[in-house]
Amino acid sequence: MVLKFLKALRHKRALSRDFLLIMIIAIISFIIILMVVDQFFNRLNPTAREEICRSSVLARINAVIKYRETRISPHVIPIICDTQHRVLRGSKEDVLRQISDMTARCWWMFLNGEYANVFDDSSIKSEIKCFNCYSFYIQEDINITYNELYFYMSTQYYIDNKDGTGVTYMDYIQSHGGPGAFHFRPELILEGSRRKQLDKLYFVTFVSPDITWFADYSREFAFLLNPWISSRVGDQFSQQLKMNRILIDVYDYKNLGSESNNLLKQCGKIIERE
């Protein structure tokens, strides 16, 4: 009886080791495939590159190994995304639509914000939490203000059901998938020009929240030190800080040390001016 039990135990352990080995081989094989794909990435059309980006993010999220009763999420699958550069042309409405399309597409590539942080699973302190989906400039003599873009995204459908209903760009980001936020500084103006090269490059960036315990305690401590913030407002603000968001910001080549420049440099490669 004891011998049968020991044999069964050894068999179970062997199966666990074999399963773990198969999973590791599968993950390594997938990484090799993604590395090969990465070599040809820049030759693909923009839509194919966006789809590969989304697939790599999904694979990274799903790369969970279960060994005995332990779930391991090693985040070994690399995110294969690149920052696509766009030159926007057309009427003001055309440019508003192109910018709105980029925000929605960036949200889609990162799984509609359904996962708190696809970049890093550190429980102590997280540093990698953003990606520049697109850079762009406007090759027209028009400027886009915060109010114009916000109104367009709040009233125009990204998903049009063709029956008078649909999902606006803003609703798509805020509630289609995980709860999300759209951030565009009210004082920022997206400047365009046909005749001269501007000193500014604009970005559409996906930003994940810092969900580590260090960030949670820092936020709670900050609220406790501020007597002017009610518990209800504090809770709402805390929830917003835990959301994924789409950010539109500017990289200013004449002010290299600015706060927005430093953030955008953390989120991806910045193209050099010609």
Report on the structure:
The protein has 274 residues and is of the alpha+beta class. It has two domains: 1-81; 83-274, no CATH class. The protein is 45% helix and 19% strand. It has eight helices and eleven strands. The protein has helices at residues 2-39, 46-62, 92-109, 146-155, 169-175, 213-225, 231-241, 259-266, and strands at 65-67, 70-72, 84-88, 130-138, 143-144, 157-160, 166-168, 180-184, 190-191, 200-207, 244-252. Strands 3-4-10-11-8 form a five-stranded mixed beta sheet. Strands 1-2 form a two-stranded antiparallel ribbon. The protein has a two-stranded antiparallel ribbon with strand order 5-9. Helix 3 (92-109) links the parallel strand 3 and strand 4. The longest helix is centred in the first third of the chain and has 38 residues, at 2-39. The chain is globular, with a radius of gyration of 23 Å.
